[in-house]
Amino acid sequence: MPRVNAKVREETRGQLLAAGAEHIARDGLERASVDAIAIAAGYAKGTFYNYFDSKEQLFGEVIAEAARRAVSHYARAKVRGTTRQQLLALAAADVDVLREQEAFTKVVIREVMSFRPKTYPLILAHLAPFLQKIEAVLSRGVVRGEVRGDRPIDQQTLIFVGTLALLYVQHWGSGGLRPSLDDVPHLAVDSFLDGAGVRSGARKR
C-alpha cells in the first residue's frame, strides 16, 4: 500500500475537521457521530481513527484551530498600545473567528456552561493559544499599573474570557440586538478593566 504524503494527510485532516465542525454545530457534541462525520468528509470510519481518537478529540482540535486563528487575527492588527487597546484587539479577533463559525461556537459555549467534567478541561486546554496571549497582555498590564496585581493572571484571564462568553450568550438570547457583535469588544473590556481591573491600587489610564 502506498504511503500517504504529508500534503494528503493535511488535506484529509482538514476535511475531517471541517465536517466535524459542521456536524457538531448542527447536532451538538453528544449527538454527533464519528460515522456521520467520516461519511460527510468522504471517508470511511477507519480513516477518521487514523487522525483522531474520538469525536471529543476532533472537537478539541477544531477549538484549537479557532484559537490559533484568533491569535493570528490579533497579530495582524499589530496593536502596541495600552492594555485596553490590546484587549480590545484580542476581543475583536475573537469576534472575527466567532463570525466564521458561529454555530460551532454556540456548541462550545454551551459545553462550557454545562460544566461537564469530560469536556470542560478539554476546551480550556485547546483554547491555550488564545488564553496565553491574553495572559501575556494582562501580565504586562500589571507591570504598567493598568491591571490589578492582587489576583492571579490565569484567574483574570478566565474572567475576561468568561465575560466574552456571557456577552455572546446575551447577543444570541436577544436575537442579535443587545449587544451586537460589534459592541462586544468594548463592553467586555470596559466591564473588565473599569470593573475588576483597576481596583486595589491599580491606576486607571
Commentary on this structure:
With 205 residues, the protein is an all-alpha fold. The protein has 10 helices and no strands. It has helices at residues 6-31, 34-41, 45-51, 55-77, 83-100, 102-114, 120-126, 128-143, 153-173, 184-197. The longest helix is centred in the N-terminal third of the chain and has 26 residues, at 6-31. The chain is globular. It starts with 5 loop residues before the first helix and ends in an 8-residue tail after the last helix. The model is unreliable at 199-205 (pLDDT under 50).
Give the low-confidence spans.
199-205
Strand % is under 5%
Number of helical stretches of at least 4 residues: 10
The major beta sheet can be summarized as: none
Q: What's the end-to-end separation, in Å? A: 64 Å
Shape verdict: globular
Number of strands: 0
> Helical proportion?
over 70%
* Secondary-structure element series: HHHHHHHHHH
- Based on secondary structure, the structural category is mainly alpha
Overall average residue pLDDT: 92
Radius of gyration in whole Å, from Cα? Answer: 19 Å
